[in-house]
Amino acid sequence: MRISVISNASATPADKEFFTYNAPFQYRWTNKYLQSTLKPVRRDGTPTTFNINDVSFEVTVPAKGAGTLGLIFADPCFAGAAATCFWASKFQTFERMTELMNVVVPNVDYWQILGDNFYDRDGHLTQAWYDQLSLHVKSTLFATTAGNHDYWGFGSSIIGLDIDQFGNGLMQYYGMDTISSYQMSQNTSIPTGHFIDYSIDPDAKQTKHKLPPLENFFTWFAIGNVGYILYSGGYEYQDTKPYFEEACAWLKKEKTAVAFIAGHWNDAGLGCSRHMDVPAVYEEVRRGRGG
């Protein structure tokens, strides 16, 4: 299980011996510091206890084949019209959603945000949200994927700005265990513990505004009797097809009761090609062309 801790870059990092990756954010949200590691956990539905700087928390993974309950949502937006969140104040999104999380998540097995995570360019909205959540919520199994507003502040590559995060803030803040993590673990030339592919600098002249490698946003896993394939629609289908095939083969062996393909875009456009929205990918996979 990947465990990550985010702190302000100016603060004293948590126990560095606990983590295999300790480094400031790169390219975006550079006022933050990421620590991450993989730790063994029990797989029988009983909790595994960890301790970091005298703070104890439990991580519980449902037993294989067990029924599970999860909370899944997308597009949490609370910053007002400046972030195109015109109804944030009327519906009190920030107050109601964070309260909902603290009440509901301790009673479920996992939770997910399927993109447009707070429409956040510089990381301050994400921190404001997580500052309101309990330790129990933060230590519950979590997964996410990127949406158009996680790449471009105004939600479209056509009007991308130099200050946009292009997914770099998101991929570091959430510390997902992705294809990139696996690939790096197999590469002996990469330092132990490195799990994010930083090979594309969005500010370099030759890669101006180019998105990070897709491998940072593609993963699959099972929680109890439910399987998931999470991916980002900001890339081309032919580039992601090998991973869909590998994920489908793994899920077939895992024999979950049900499996979901989860992404952000429900239709093409706004940075998503006509082959990469979730309905299109589902059709490709269902017909056997992607897995």
Task: Compile the SSE list and pairings.
Blueprint: E1 2-8, E2 21-24, E3 32-38, E4 47-52, E5 55-60, E6 70-73, H1 88-91, H2 93-104, E7 110-113, H3 124-130, H4 135-138, E8 141-144, H5 148-151, H6 168-173, H7 179-185, E9 219-223, E10 226-230, H8 237-254, E11 258-262, H9 278-286
Parallel strand pairs: 6-7, 7-8, 10-11
Antiparallel strand pairs: 1-3, 2-3, 4-5, 9-10
Under CATH at level 1, the class stands as Alpha Beta
Going across the major beta sheet, what is the strand order?
Answer: 1-3-2
Globally, the shape reads: globular
Report the mean per-residue pLDDT as an integer: 95
Low-confidence stretches: none
Task: Give the beta-strand count.
Answer: 11
Helix/strand structural class: alpha/beta
Write down the secondary-structure element order.
EEEEEEHHEHHEHHHEEHEH
Radius of gyration: 18 Å
Helical content class: 10-25%
Kindly report how far apart the N and C termini lie: 25 Å
Number of helices: 9
